[in-house]
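Page 37, top half.
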Amino acid sequence: MTSTPDVSTLPSRLHHNAYVTRDQEATRAFYEDLIGLPLVATWKEADELFGAIRTYCHTFYGLGDGSALAFFQFADAGDQEQFGPQMPFSPFQHIALKVTDDVQNAIAERLDDAGWKPEETYVLEHGYCRSLYTSDPNGLLLEFTADAPGVEDTDAQRRTTARTELKAWLEGDHTSNNTWR
């Protein structure tokens, strides 16, 4: 078992997670107006990147810990196509944001009031957390996760068994270890 790393040697937090959008205004309306994440920066830039001058707009939507979700949109249609191709949908490719029960409920209510993609908005009870899922205007799946009471104890226990459980999985033991369900 590896010892717990010195936190001063780890990245301190996520700075931002970046994606490509086809429509900055639709993205802004979703993240700021529906989800409640403030637009905290907009950078309009032109740089020589990958052998050509690329002109783009880079927006950042703030999270409570100072990190952000960020989105690029390119001025040139060819750049937009090259750097923002449609990704195949998978519910396993998503971004999960930690929220309280109250924040999760408020987001769910705003999505419902706006009639936002009801066929793509749903809740899953994982046992150790409750997750509200929806997709943004770009097809990016978002998960708003509220931890179950006592999650600190569960997290501590999972830290002690993480390597053993992974080893067992890799050796073919695919038995569920989620005793919350």
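Page 37, bottom half:
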Amino acid sequence: MEYGSIERELRIDATPEVVYEVVSSPEHLREWWPDDAELDPVPGAVGTITFGDPASQEAKVEQLTVVEADPPRRFAFLWVTDQGEAATQGNSLLVTIDLVASGDGTLLRFKETGFRERGWEAAVLEKAYTDHVNGWNHFLPRLVAYAQKLVARP
């Protein structure tokens, strides 16, 4: 296996405008991905997402740096950066979410890259890649369900 990128394509019964809010705004992110999110969805902004109880020492906090914010077409961010470093293409993973209108819904194209570029040894690379595949396999269906639930509200 090459561990180069993770790519998914999902169909969502909601407009690109709705889906863009779901993938970029903290109040919506908290509903399908992290337990907490502090983020201004504008290019260059640095925020955090937290997995687990934010008050707990066991909580996992990840820095997120917004690379691109082009509503309602694309949202991209860098994350999984070593503590204390500013995020760059070489020391972080890049998540790009492209949204394309498709009938009365949206085609979401998800891509996460940068695994090999991190320079991790083989075992670390394989574990990180596998963890992210499993994570996105869990969270992306939640994104779809949440976006569709939003537009189904009366």
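Margin note: The chain has three helices and seven strands.
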